[in-house]
Structure formats: C-alpha cells, structure tokens
Amino acid sequence: MSRKELLKQQREQMIEEDGIIFLDNVSKAYSTGAPALDNITLHINRGEFVFIVGDSGSGKSTLIKLLLRELTATSGSVYVMGSNLARLKHRQIPKFRRNLGVVFQDFRLLKDRNVYENVAFAQRIVETPAGEIRRNVPAILATVGLAGKYKSKTSRLSGGEQQRVALARALINNPSILLADEPTGNLDPKNSWEIMKLLEEINEQGTTVLVVTHNREIVNAMQKRVITMKKGVIVSDEEEGGYIDEEY
Ligand code: ADP
Ligand code: MG
Predict the structure, then answer these.
(1) Strand pairing of 233-238 and 21-28?
(2) C-alpha span between 226 and 219 (Å, rounded)
(3) How far is the CA of 36 from the centre of ligand 1 (A)?
C-alpha cells in the first residue's frame, strides 16, 4: 500500500471512530470580549441530524464558521471529514468546501440572476461539465419544490422560494455535510416547516445536517439531537431533545 493510500485509510478510520465532525477542546477568541467558544468538545457522526440552539451571542455562528474554515480555532483542533482544518493549506480549501453545503438566514443569492443561474453557478465553479449541469439543476430544483421557476429572478421570489433556491445551490454538488445557520429566521411558520422538512429529507438520504435555529416549536416537534449553547459552552446535548431555555 502506498503512503497516500495508507493516509486515506487512516483518515477514513478516524472518521468512523471520531465522527464526521470532531471538535477537540476548541476555543475561539475574537480580538475583543470574552471567548466566543470556550473549550468545546463535540462529536457528530456521519448521517446525524443535529439542532444547535442557544441565545443570541452564545457562539453558534462561530461554531459554523469554524466548520467551514472561515475562521480557525484559537486553541484545540477541528476535524471535518477527517481533515484537521488547522493543517489545511489555502489551496486545499476550495476542494474541502465542495463537500459542505451551507445555507444562511439571509439567503445570499445572486439577485440579478435567475433561479437556474444561481444553482448552475455552484456547479460551474467546481468545473462540472455543461451537460451534467443541464441535467442536475432541474433535478435539484424539483427536489426543493421549484420545478417551473427556473427563469424567475431571485429578487422576485418570496422568502420561502429564495431559501429553496439557496438550498438547491447548497445541495447541487452533493455535499457530505449541510450546515444551516438560522435557515428559517426570515420565514413565516408555514415556509419554516417546509424548509425543515426538506432538511430532514436530505438527511434521510445520507447527508449529515446541522441546523442552528431559534424555532422552538419545530425543535420540540422534530425530536432530533439538540445541542444547547450558552456563553460559548455546550450546556446540554440530548438525543431526541427539546428546546431548553429556562433551566440554564
Ligand atoms: P450566535 O451565532 O450564537 O448569536 P456568534 O457566534 O455570532 O453567536 O457570537 C458569539 C460571540 O462572539 C458574541 O459575543 C459576539 O459578539 C462575538 N463575535 C462574533 N463575531 C465577532 C467578530 N467578528 N468580532 C468580535 N466579536 C465577535
Ligand atoms: Mg448566529
């Protein structure tokens, strides 16, 4: 076995043992204020669906940014899909991010482009052949319930529709992990439920899903793993948990 194959095997073994996401004693301090994350240790296994809840300022978005390698930890180690993110070279980051889909509260779409273009763009940047893009985009748009909306400018769509476009764009490259930071923060209850149900379906097809949310009703109803953060620490981590705020 070559050294490269051996390393690959070791990495895969590590993912099995420590999970697709593993934070080992991670802290993150910005230049001002108290640490945003304070000695977090966290394992997430391949295929899990996890809610992350907690007050504003508790460190949820910082955690997501560390997983995306938008930020690096001040101390401790972050492993995603077997890579120690502190060791990732700048030129390796685009390839690493290909395996991550991300959705934000504010959609972050190209406003002057149509729905098709917004999704196709994510495939062009990873150099997917044109023929494949033409097959993939309609399929993913159908999955998120947007068949027939290809030509609409995204600025003309409702919030719920815009978040579906963002979700289609996040999923088009078939990521191993989907990270969603308050994906329903700007949506009404009906659209919030529809987006969460889509996230659940995506998870059932094998993608590991992490969702930061304040939506107490949905968290309580869906009975997933719930990690509660407060002031940069994990104060509870429960299988089939609920939304906790009074006890801590
Ligand atoms: P949450 O997503 O749970 O609301 P954040 O991770 O955004 O929390 O923020 C955690 C803490 O870190 C907060 O106290 C926030 O003010 C601080 N913080 C976040 N981003 C920055 C930044 N770029 N510079 C300085 N402090 C920051
Ligand atoms: Mg946040």
Answers:
(1) unpaired
(2) 8
(3) 6
For residue 185, give both structure tokens. 């923060």
Q: How many Cα atoms are found within 13 Å in the side-chain-facing hemisphere of 192?
A: 19
**In this predicted structure, what is the pLDDT of residue 246?**
59
The token pair that represents 67 in the structure block: 């997983």
Read off the pLDDT of each residue in 81-90 and give the average, rounded to a whole number: 94
- What is the per-residue pLDDT for 248? 53
Q: State which ligand 1 atom lies nearest to the alpha carbon of 31.
A: 25
Helix (H) or strand (E) holding 242: none
Phi, psi of 39 (to 5 degrees): 60, 60
Which region among 15-24, 100-109, 181-190 has the lowest average model confidence (pLDDT)? 15-24
The four Cα atoms 174, 61, 30, 243 give a dihedral, to 10 degrees, of -140
Q: Is the pLDDT of residue 213 over 90?
A: yes
Distance 230 CA to ligand 1 centre (A): 12
User: Which two tokens mark 75?
Assistant: 């101390």
For atom 13 of ligand 1, which residue has the closest CA?
Answer: 57
Say if residue 63's pLDDT is above 60. yes
Ligand 1, from 26, 30, 67: best to mutate by most atoms within 8 Å of Cβ? 30
What amino acid is encoded at 70 in this protein? E
Q: Are 109 and 153 in contact (CB under 8 A)?
A: no
Residue 225: strand pairing partners: 50
Nearest CA to ligand 1 atom 12: 36
